[in-house]
Amino acid sequence: MKFMKLGSKPDAFQTDGGGDSRYVLSELPSDIVIHVEEARFYLHKFPLLSKSSLLQRLIIEASQNGTDEVYIHDIPGGVKIFEICAKFCYGMVVTLNAYNVVAARCAAEFLGMTEDVDKSNLVFKIEVFLNSGIFRSWKDSIIALQTTDALLPWSEQLKLAARCIDSIASKATSNPCNVVWSYTYNRKSASSDEIVEARKNSQPVPKDWWVEDLCELDVDLYKRVMVAVKSRGRITSDVVGEALKAYASRWLPECFDAAAIDDDAYSMAYNHLLETIVWLLPSDKGSSCCSCRFFLKLLKVAVLIGSGEMLKEELMDRVILQLHKASVCDLLIPARPPALTTYDIQLVLTLVGRFMRRAGVTEDGIFLNNLDQEMFETDVDDESLLALSKIVDGYLAEVASDPNLSVSSFVAVATSMPDAARATHDGLYTAIDVFLKLHPNLPKAEKRKISSLMDVKKLSKEACIHAAQNDRLPLRVVVQSSRLSLSSRSRRMFDRLWAGGKPPGGEVVSKSSDTSGSSQSPRSSAKPPASKSSSSSSRNRRYSVS
């Protein structure tokens, strides 16, 4: 850190026992009392009159009124910074650094310690230090910028914040080969916070070397810096994306307490953070600056804190461009009241529906490019549809364990993907089995409706074997699965026996077998996941956003 020492005389300021009174050790008695907030400074007129135009005026006015007391209100930096200015007037040693230089500059301006009053006055000295020290240092520029918020409006009027931002932006956009200062880099190769000494590091400086240090900035200052960085046109969208992901990771919590979500101040702060991050995203929504997982994390937070529709729509527009790259966990977005389900089913249906329309698939599952009367171009390929179908089936298996999930919602999610997009129905069968297991009291008609969603001909052999033994499935599905799981010779024997009224093995199959018992799971992916406990409430919980 850069620092500058001013003055040469020893520090002779003393404080009384209570700490409210300060005085200078001197053979001469004090002849003026300066009140700053709750503190009293017992000082001497001459040193003050020679440096400060404001104190000149106030001391003259006090003398005319027959008093030796002066009151200073609203000085930038308060008592601590006034003391620095007063010591400078006495020629005593004071030390300026990135933490106090902005406040000292504002206070010097406030007190009128300019060249009009005395040569090489405090304003001049500080300006020399800012230009030759602070603004040449990456870390010091950031620290100085952080102090500007508490010094409004002076820091803005003197353009100190703008000058800090310009210094930071110019360094962030410089060629990484020219980076010769230290910076923090704790992502990827580094396992913890690490100060990288660029001069001594033989490794090349990464393009995103600057993003970690900026994460310490307040959201409004961060926005101003990022605007300045982007306006220079030297930073690619993927690096901007890295910066925004790092900032979101720094300030967005991994989970939200349900009670905190209902706190208006809490929600407003995070909503402002979300709006800023989204506003700073590259304007090209098709760019790969950020992953689908990152956008879904932001969308999850937006849902939890009740952000506005415009913000959620912007995030959804970006999500659907990469929805096939999401994971099941990414889509598990908690629902807000009055929804009864644990997760927001309608939101996922909306995302899948928009992806399908973008892919040229109608609500009936018809591909527009297969219709002679339609000319439709899309950049969604078959691999993307197959990938999304696996994600949807995995998602359906997760939410199927929710006791509050209705049959209609289950059917809606299952049918959100066209049949042609599913190369296999093993994943769909897993979801159906979980749903039937957690909803044992469904009417037979609804069981048949659920089971009819899958095509047993698209089940793997292992899944067929599992389904053939699955007493939760309607009898018709069990019979079809049993037949498909057999060899050709055994299948013919099965058909002859079944036509005679008996299944293989000569035992009569009970008509009640569609609701009784449980079956063993197969060894492959057809195995339904362990069901989640339905006793936990969706309220009064911590919502994960990771």
TrEMBL record:
<keyword id="KW-0833">Ubl conjugation pathway</keyword>
<feature type="compositionally biased region" description="Low complexity">
    <location>
        <begin position="510"/>
        <end position="538"/>
    </location>
</feature>
<dbReference type="Pfam" id="PF00651">
    <property type="entry name" value="BTB"/>
</dbReference>
<feature type="domain" description="BTB">
    <location>
        <begin position="30"/>
        <end position="98"/>
    </location>
</feature>
<dbReference type="InterPro" id="IPR011333">
    <property type="entry name" value="SKP1/BTB/POZ_sf"/>
</dbReference>
<dbReference type="Pfam" id="PF03000">
    <property type="entry name" value="NPH3"/>
</dbReference>
<comment type="pathway">
    <text>Protein modification; protein ubiquitination.</text>
</comment>
<dbReference type="InterPro" id="IPR043454">
    <property type="entry name" value="NPH3/RPT2-like"/>
</dbReference>
<dbReference type="InterPro" id="IPR027356">
    <property type="entry name" value="NPH3_dom"/>
</dbReference>
<feature type="region of interest" description="Disordered">
    <location>
        <begin position="497"/>
        <end position="546"/>
    </location>
</feature>
<protein>
    <recommendedName>
        <fullName>NPH3 domain-containing protein</fullName>
    </recommendedName>
</protein>
<dbReference type="InterPro" id="IPR000210">
    <property type="entry name" value="BTB/POZ_dom"/>
</dbReference>
<dbReference type="GO" id="GO:0016567">
    <property type="term" value="P:protein ubiquitination"/>
</dbReference>
<comment type="similarity">
    <text>Belongs to the NPH3 family.</text>
</comment>
<feature type="domain" description="NPH3">
    <location>
        <begin position="208"/>
        <end position="488"/>
    </location>
</feature>
